[in-house]
Amino acid sequence: MEKKTKAPMPSINIVEEQLTLYGDVEKLPSKTIVNVSSVPQRSPFRYAGGKTWLIPEVRKWLTQADEPVATLLEPFVGGGIVSLTAVAEHLAENAVVVELDQEVYAVWATMLGADNAWLANRIYQFDLNATNVNNITTKQWDTLREIAFATIIKNRTFHGGILAKGAGLLKNGENGKGLASRWYPKTLRDRIEAIAPLKNKIVACHGNAFDFLKQYSDDSDCYHFIDPPYFQAGKRLYTHFDIDHDKLFRLVAGLKGKYLLTYDNNPQINALVKKYNLQSRTIPMKTTHHLQKEELLISDNFDWL
After folding, report:
1. What is the pLDDT of residue 182?
2. Contact 238, 84 (CB under 8 A)
3. Which of 99, 161, 176, 197 is 20 to 30 A distant from 43 in Cα terms?
């Protein structure tokens, strides 16, 4: 029997390109909204469009086989809760996480590198006040670890954790706590330190999601978790929101490995689902403002549900 060889873990430094979509869909039966407090919080990011709420379904998707997934590719990593969960819970042997945003990538590179402890301690010891936050977030930093630290400060003190241009600092915040509303230095330090033991199993790459999807397209052992910028709200939430959604669907339709693609549910996206003859389901979730909505799941099969 011919032995399968794994695609090599990349050490690439690529840059940009991005995606655009459309459609109607079958709902998942009897699905209740997941309480995110029941899911282990492994990421230091407060990420717009984060998928903590989807983790129970992701676990089912990753356990279709009788053994851990050889390689999990997350080409739009963002907060990275899926890859962190998969590796920490031994659902995947390795993960490749890709991020085009320089600031978000800097956090991943630092957490998975030699400066993990530096970042964790810098956060824990930081004196959070308006002056210090302004000094950190308005300066142009030169090193990855300083960019990473500034990014975490922005993520935890800007409205909704939004890093895109135009995002502003919290004022009243949660329960009138202002800037400190989402600042939990010990929790953040602990989460970052808990990522350090995973560094030999997760590779962080700064580059374009499309290039990595092409690189792994023929790898039948690779699982692809694909969570691109929201089609409708992406412009407000992300720096790199303008992507070619049709091209993404075309790439997904050609993948040899298993995939799970998530999107906001709207007619344009569903039209692309039909165009490329893909399978989809809707699933309920709650927004950060506690509004109930439906997201779209697209997969090569839904037997795992």
Report:
1. 81
2. no
3. 176
